[in-house]
Amino acid sequence: MDHSREVVVVTGGGSGIGLRAAGRLAADGHKVFIVCRDRRRGEDALSRINATAAETARLVLADLSEPDSLDAVASSVAAEADHLDALVNNAANFDQALREPHRTAAGHELIWATNHLGPFRLTAVLSGLLAAAPRPVVVTVASKGLVTTPRATIRFDHLDGAGWYTPTRAYYHSKLAQVMFSFELALRAPAKLGVACVRVPAVRLDADRLAGLPRLLRVAYAPKNRLAAPPEELAATYARIIRSHTDGGDDGGGPRGSLRGIYVDERLRPVKAPAHAYDAAARARLWSVTQEAAGDPRWAWGAEPVCEERPTW
In this structure, how many other beta carbons lie within 10 angstroms of the beta carbon of residue 162? Predict the structure, then answer.
């Protein structure tokens, strides 16, 4: 099968890893939709991507914390494609300036809504297009910082940060949820769907993003930023995941546990997830409460587990 023109959606395509991943995929001839919240940043990114693109990329404006805008993403993609080969849930909010919880219009804490509820709903509303592809794949992003909190659990009584919030706690809470979402998605989706969650290390911020931080945060983060991984390296990781699954090659030829493990590091080596992610009851509970909080989106393949074999976690 010719996979030279695959359809890919990349969230957070306006900067960092998302920008580089979208640029690489578009340069390789894939039909790329970048999802950005900010029009100016998105249009600037689109110009950079299309300067070297073999296939013109598209910009879709959407805020992951707002459910209605995610439905618009699905409509925009469906208007130009009858299937979706890859969804990269890359965008995330780790705004250290949010010293107090900020609430969305629906009343959810902003980091939780952006990093977990949004990707969950977006995957659901795009599931029909994913189901129409021959070997689709969903890539979701966690954080290497989770290794510092191996006993972290989902705070089911206070999902939206009440009483325990700091931006760092909220961020890692949402990243744990993303790992659990990936594990559960692998059980509930058809066998042809590849599911990979990438444990991303600290990644170098673009100069404009670093400059936009409050002064104290900028000074504190600068040394770490110099030592962080270049975003191009992680962009290559995303691209390799997509290629290996959709091509059915040695790196991800199996219908489940693509890339030799559903949770991988930046070099695609299987790594252990936090212990709570292996708790089947906790994952099922998280799926249920997320489904409700995300507005009960419809999944193309239903809501119950369908996997006949355990993914290679």
Answer: 11
The DSSP result for 53-81, as a single string, is -SS--EEEE--TT-HHHHHHHHHHHHTT-
What pLDDT shows up at residue 311?
A: 56
Asked if pLDDT for residue 81 goes beyond 90, the answer is yes
Across the chain, the runs of DSSP E, i.e. the strands, are: 7-11, 31-36, 58-61, 86-89, 137-143, 194-200, 263-265
What lies within 8 Å, CB to CB, of 215 at 6+ separation is none
What's the average model confidence in pLDDT over 54-80?
Answer: 96
Q: Which of 55-59, 165-169, 247-251 has the lowest mean pLDDT?
A: 247-251
Distance, CA of 231 to CA of 125 (rounded, Å): 28
And the tokens for 114? 């952006």
Phi, psi of 237 (to 5 degrees): -65, -50
Our answer to whether residue 171 is catalytic in this structure is yes
Per-residue pLDDT tens for 133-190? 999 999 999 999 999 999 999 999 999 888 899 999 999 999 999 999 999 999 999 9
**Which domains, from first to last, does the chain contain?**
7-204+231-293 (3.40.50.720)
C-alpha 232/C-alpha 31 separation (Å) is 19
CA atoms of 208 and 153, how far apart (whole Å):
34
Pick from 122-131, 186-195, 221-230, 244-253: least confident? 244-253
Answer yes or no: is pLDDT of 236 > 50.
yes
Q: Output the CA–CA distances (angstroms, integers) from residue 34 to 76, 77, 180, 297, in the order listed.
A: 11, 10, 25, 22
Asked if pLDDT for residue 253 goes beyond 70, the answer is no
Number of neighbours of residue 150 by Cβ within 10 angstroms: 11
Single out the residue of 229, 168, 169 nearest to residue 16, CA to CA: 229
Distances (CA, A) of 115 to 8, 30, 58, 128, 290: 19, 26, 23, 22, 12
Cα–Cα distance, 34 to 92 (Å, whole number)? 14
Cα 123 to the chain's mean position, in Å?
9
